[in-house]
Amino acid sequence: MKRWRxxxxxxxxxxxxxxxxxxxxxxxxxxxxxxxxxxxxxxxLSYQVVLPQAISTQSASTxxxxxxxxxxxxxxxxxxxxxxxxxxxxxLYFSHTQIVIIGQDAARKGLGPLLDxxxxxxxxxxxVNVFLSKGSARRMLEQLIPLEKIPGAAIQRMINNExxxxxxxxxxxxxxxxxxxxxxxxATGIPGLVVSGTNESVDNAGQLAYTNTPSKVRLFDLGLxxxxxxxxxxxxxxxxxxxxxxxxxxxxxxxxACSADKNEQKRSSIRITHARTNLTPRPSNGKWLMxxxxxxTGTLMEYNCEGDLTNPKQIVKLQKRVEDEIVAIMQKGWGxxxxxxxxxxxxxxxxxxxxxxxxxxxxxxxSEEFPNIELKLKVKVNxxxxxMSGSGFKKxxxxxxx
Length: 402
Prior knowledge:
Layout: H1 2-17, E1 28-39, E2 42-50, H2 52-55, E3 67-74, H3 77-82, E4 91-93, E5 99-103, H4 104-109, H5 112-120, E6 129-133, H6 137-141, H7 151-165, H8 174-181, E7 187-197, E8 215-226, E9 229-234, H9 236-245, E10 252-256, E11 268-284, E12 287-302, H10 312-339, H11 347-354, H12 356-362, H13 366-369, E13 374-385, H14 393-401
Parallel strand pairs: 1-4, 1-5, 5-6, 6-7, 12-13
Antiparallel strand pairs: 1-2, 2-3, 7-8, 8-9, 10-11, 11-12
C-alpha cells in the first residue's frame, strides 16, 4: 500500500511540473525575414514580423498586410538587436526566420559579423536562405508578393522554384555559405534581389481595383563573395553558366537558333530534364587545364526550324545546336567569374582532392592562378523526345496545302 502511495505522489509531481522553458506566443514577435544594411557607419537590422490577427481567416482582409517591418541600428549586430526592446512590446523570436537579405553596402563591408552571430547563438538556424540586395534590404522586406501573405516565405519558395525549374541560381543557406567561405577557395555566390516595376506605393497592391502589383521582388544577378566581402555581380546568363560548370543544373530550358548565325533569333527550345558535369584537372606547363564534360538529357519543347525530325541525321544536327548553346553559356559564366578572380565554381577544391601536393604550392596564390585555367569544354546532349510532330507547325501547314 505504501508503494502505491509513493508512486501516486511521484506521478502527481511529474504532472504538476509543466513546461519549464515554454514560450508564450503573446510574449514574442515572430520574425520571418531579416534584413541587414550598412548606413552611416552602423549596422541597420530590419525585421519582418508576422501579425497573427492579419493572417487569420476570420479577420484577414485584402487591404491588410500580414507583416510589419521595423528597423534598429547599432555599432554591432547584437547591439542593434538588443535595441529592439526600445520600440516593441515583445521579444524578438528568430527561430522561425526563413530568409536573410543583405544589402549591397553591408555585403561590401563584410559578411563576417553576421556569420559569427549565427555561429554563436543557439536560436539562429543555419538553414535560413540568404540573398543579396542591390539596394536597401529593408526595401525588399517591405514589398508585398502576390499569392502569398508572408513575403519572407514567398521569397524562400521563389528560390526553391527557380532552382528546380530554371537553375539560373542556386539556393544558398547560412550553412552552405559557411562551408564555402571556410573551405578551400573561400568564395561563394549568393543570389541577388531587386524591386522591378514602378515606384508606386505597394500599399495599393492589395486593393481589389488592381489585378497586378505595381512593383515586385524578383531574382536578379549573382553576387560574388571572396573572403567575406562582395566583390562584384554577374548577370543571369553568366550565373547559369556558373551553374553548369559547378554541376548545379537540375532542370532548365535552352533556347537555340536553327543555324550557327549569331544574329539569328532563338525561336526553338529544349527542356533539359537531367544534367551532370564532371571536372577533371590536369597540370600542364606550369598552369592548370580543366576538362569539363557535360552530359544532358532533354525534351524538345519548341521547333521552328526546317528539317524532318523523323530523320536521325536531323536529330543529330539539332542536338549539336543545343550542345553549342550550352558551351556558349558556360564560356560566358567562366569569363565573368575569372574576371573577378573568384572561384565560386569550386575548381580549387577539385584540384586539391586530386593533386594535394601541387595544390599546397598553388593555394597561396590561387586568386592569381584561377583566371589562367584553360577549360576544355565537351557537351553531349541526348534528345529523348521530339513530341508528336516530325516537323514544325508551318511546315505541317505547307504539307496540308499541297
